[in-house]
Amino acid sequence: MKGTPSFGKMNKNKTHIRCRRCGRHSFNVSKGYCVACGYGRSKRMRRYSWQNKKSWTRQRLR
């Protein structure tokens, strides 16, 4: 069987479980690391500058 009926079988098993470091439901079981905090892949917390809005963009134009 292929096509549309096959897509119904895609939600049977869990891809992500709760992460033991950040607590979010984003630990990939098959890959073995958390996509939110990077647990299982690195010792440091996963964070980037583009996650937060820059402070100069919040200032009012004059």
From TrEMBL:
<dbReference type="InterPro" id="IPR001569">
    <property type="entry name" value="Ribosomal_eL37"/>
</dbReference>
<dbReference type="GO" id="GO:0019843">
    <property type="term" value="F:rRNA binding"/>
</dbReference>
<dbReference type="GO" id="GO:0008270">
    <property type="term" value="F:zinc ion binding"/>
</dbReference>
<comment type="similarity">
    <text>Belongs to the eukaryotic ribosomal protein eL37 family.</text>
</comment>
<protein>
    <recommendedName>
        <fullName>Large ribosomal subunit protein eL37</fullName>
    </recommendedName>
</protein>
<keyword id="KW-0479">Metal-binding</keyword>
<dbReference type="GO" id="GO:0022625">
    <property type="term" value="C:cytosolic large ribosomal subunit"/>
</dbReference>
<dbReference type="Pfam" id="PF01907">
    <property type="entry name" value="Ribosomal_L37e"/>
</dbReference>
<feature type="binding site">
    <location>
        <position position="19"/>
    </location>
    <ligand>
        <name>Zn(2+)</name>
    </ligand>
</feature>
<dbReference type="InterPro" id="IPR011332">
    <property type="entry name" value="Ribosomal_zn-bd"/>
</dbReference>
<comment type="function">
    <text>Binds to the 23S rRNA.</text>
</comment>
<dbReference type="InterPro" id="IPR018267">
    <property type="entry name" value="Ribosomal_eL37_CS"/>
</dbReference>
<keyword id="KW-0863">Zinc-finger</keyword>
<keyword id="KW-0687">Ribonucleoprotein</keyword>
<keyword id="KW-0862">Zinc</keyword>
<comment type="function">
    <text>Component of the large ribosomal subunit. The ribosome is a large ribonucleoprotein complex responsible for the synthesis of proteins in the cell.</text>
</comment>
<feature type="binding site">
    <location>
        <position position="37"/>
    </location>
    <ligand>
        <name>Zn(2+)</name>
    </ligand>
</feature>
<keyword id="KW-0699">rRNA-binding</keyword>
<dbReference type="GO" id="GO:0003735">
    <property type="term" value="F:structural constituent of ribosome"/>
</dbReference>
<feature type="zinc finger region" description="C4-type">
    <location>
        <begin position="19"/>
        <end position="37"/>
    </location>
</feature>
<dbReference type="GO" id="GO:0006412">
    <property type="term" value="P:translation"/>
</dbReference>
<feature type="binding site">
    <location>
        <position position="22"/>
    </location>
    <ligand>
        <name>Zn(2+)</name>
    </ligand>
</feature>
<keyword id="KW-0689">Ribosomal protein</keyword>
<dbReference type="InterPro" id="IPR011331">
    <property type="entry name" value="Ribosomal_eL37/eL43"/>
</dbReference>
<feature type="binding site">
    <location>
        <position position="34"/>
    </location>
    <ligand>
        <name>Zn(2+)</name>
    </ligand>
</feature>
<keyword id="KW-0694">RNA-binding</keyword>
